[in-house]
Specification:
541 residues; alpha/beta; Isoleucyl-tRNA Synthetase, Domain 1; 6-stranded parallel sheet; 4-stranded antiparallel sheet; 14% strand; binds 5'-O-[(L-methionyl)-sulphamoyl]adenosine
Length: 541
Amino acid sequence: MSEPTFYVTTPIYYVNSVPHLGTAYTTVAADALARYRRMTGDDVMFLTGLDEHGQKVAQAAEEHGVGPQEWVDSVAPEFRAVWDLLDISNDDFIRTTEARHVRGAQAFLERIRERDEAESAEREPYIYQGHYEGWYCVPCETYYTGDQLEDGDCPNCGRATEFLVEDNWFFRLSAFQEPLERLLEERPDFVQPETRMNEVASFVKSGLKDLSISRKTFSWGIPLPFDDEHVMYVWFDALLNYITAIGYGSDDPDETALFERYWPADYHFVGKDIIRFHCVIWPAMLMAAGCEPPKHVFAHGFLLTKGEKMSKSKGNAMSPQDLVERFGVDAYRYYFLRDVQFGADGSISMESMVQRYNGDLANDWGNLVSRLFNMTEKYCDGRVPDCGDAADGCADDESTELVELQAIAGRLPSAYADAMARLEYVGALEATWDLIKQTNKYIEVSMPWQLAKSEEDRDRLDAVMYAALEAVRIAALFTAPVMPKTSAEVWRRLGLVDDADAGLDSLVHDLADRASWGGLPAGSTVTKGDALFPRIVEDEA
Ligand code: MSP
């Protein structure tokens, strides 16, 4: 294959609980990007998975009265089921208890040790034995010094921390101070959005301390290959999933070829709570082993309900399943990507979800499709009319609305691409809605129901109907990354695909070409079908 590659990842989620709207948010955003990049012709690798080791998961197992492996095996299918429900098109799903990960993570540590030995005359080893005395937050699986705590509690989640005294293995993070400063300087888009970059840069500047990378007071983790009394620190283990999933440390040449092909990753998507791990520790680990850092890390904000971060521990986490049942999967995906600026915190509520649903989806998009397809059945025998050379515009309609409609459709591929290059889902969807709204306006102004009354207006009617149907075809292409099901259904109703179950990203790999005006074949059979987004009455929501 010679297409450009595109590798995007989500964090691997802790299996202490089931997926909630927060974890689903990252995953849906990554999915929309992966689908879009497939449609532009990239060879995409989209990875998600589970972080199954560490004290937090071991404690959750204990609370449920089962062993840790049994526990993670029971939760993993719940994650898979929710991702299926949300139409997540991940190419792989990694669990850190899998043999491929354990092997790869151990190989990675061995690799650093080999380099330490080979370069021992020139520098201190990156991995060394030391003594840790300090604080640890189990829910965040993070070490803290006393002065980082806030009133003695974890500065991140506010919960109690515990004091650890252990002889551990350390990673010499301090040796990467300069290389990291250089990386941030040379690649200003390494961390996105910019505010997060500033945060990371000032953290690095404040001075990096070495990191304890093993624990020996509990055993739920990957044994260090050179000291099996210790298990790997869960973050060190977890970050490695991004390379073990694509064959790092494997003996199988087909698997290692994936690493050659996809690494460095184009984007790690993370929440803003875990940027230090991804933007400081992770690139330093990779440099220590002689690997490239990822190209970009994008940190999105938190979903807030009534101004508070939504999380299971705060008891304000809504379930994705409930919302999908009420609104449908595509409306769910649309809402989070349209209502929350990716990168910023965003308040979510049932009221705003109903508003978006009824306004953008039921009224603008769903209504357009039903009205227009109904009219096609009524006035055009259920077929896309022929209006001559469609690519040159339909000569029988010279209205300014048509000129405007075609202009908006013409601008859409680049407007959408520009927005997606900045991961501005809101902008990409707004550009798509410009086309949807203009199509509605075009129909209002052109009044096909009037034209249908007289045989004299037949050519004009055909021209108008063709143009509106063509605009819908194009709009469906651009709603596809965010709303794969309904977009494919619109294409099915336009007679362009037989099976609406396969997303358009599995069929279309030349998005800009497919979006050029005139691509809708005359004569194609149009079926009307049920409302795509039946209106929701507010009290029912
Ligand atoms: N296991 C680690 C990540 C390891 S990656 C090598 C972890 N897991 S987690 O289950 O706690 O998930 C954290 C991620 O879930 C956040 O970074 C973010 O992507 C997402 N979110 C969790 N709660 C969230 C909100 N309330 N809002 C938005 N996203 C949030 O940390």
